[in-house]
Amino acid sequence: MATAIRLPVSLREALHAAARARDVSVNFLVTRAVEEFLAKLPPGDSPS
Length: 48
Description:
Structural class: mainly alpha
Helix content: 55-70%
Largest sheet: none
Order of helices and strands: HH
Mean pLDDT: 93
Strand content: under 5%
Distance between the termini: 28 Å
Number of helices: 2
Number of strands: 0
Radius of gyration: 14 Å
Oligomer: single chain
């Protein structure tokens, strides 16, 4: 499934540079970053 997001130009450039430096895809880095971020989030309130 594809998802579109908007990033500031500077963040997009940094993301692409980080992916190139590590020889991985931008998709890989974004997926890993979101997984790690969500794992660290405190539990939210359940919808009623």
